[in-house]
Amino acid sequence: MFPDFLLPFAGALVILFLTPGPGIAAMIARTLDTGPWHAAMYGVGILTGDIFWFTLAVTGLSAVAETLGPFWLIAKIVGATYLGYMAFKAFYSAWTGARPKPVFPKGSKRGWAATYLAGIAMPLSNPKPIVFYLTLVPAFVPLEEITPLTYAIMVATMAILAVPTAAFYIGGAHRARNWLERPAVRKGADIVTGLVMTAIAIILLTR
Fold first, then answer.
1. Where are the domains of the chain?
2. Three-state SS for 99?
3. How far, in whole angstroms, is CA 171 from its chain's centroid?
4. 1 pLDDT above the threshold of 50
5. Phi-psi region for residue 67, left (φ > 0), alpha (ψ -120 to 50) or beta?
6. E strands of 45-95, at which residues?
């Protein structure tokens, strides 16, 4: 029998994924900075972090999370550092009109790994998915009814809904890249991007 709670769960995920937040903002900035494929890798990292929180919730291990304070602090620092680096690059571009060289060559294995890990760090330190998975999910999903098969279906649902959502934002940002390459427009966009990334980094560190 198809569990009754899967449809409400899917509906809640749509709202979670479509609502703009730090993860989406960072993914869009990543698209404008290094292109859609790196942004997609960043999105895979975000989904991995979401699955981590979801797994804690459905296995009843959310209480364990409260004892891992140092780990969450490290995740916050990693996420904020990455966002700070993105903000620096945006401000650097606005000031000089030139892009700084990336820490890792574009397309390198280290570059892909760094992008993926930065994506994971985002939901691990972002209050939005933490509140959703650890408080809202147990409120409307009967945890005792979740079997290994149901868990797999729910994780697959997360992936299926995350892909078109990410594609929507990444595709829109990528299509706007040519327009944003105009000097005056790019300078303004870089300043806005830098301010947004700085604000998100501060939020992650202070919440």
1. 20-206
2. coil
3. 16
4. no
5. alpha
6. none
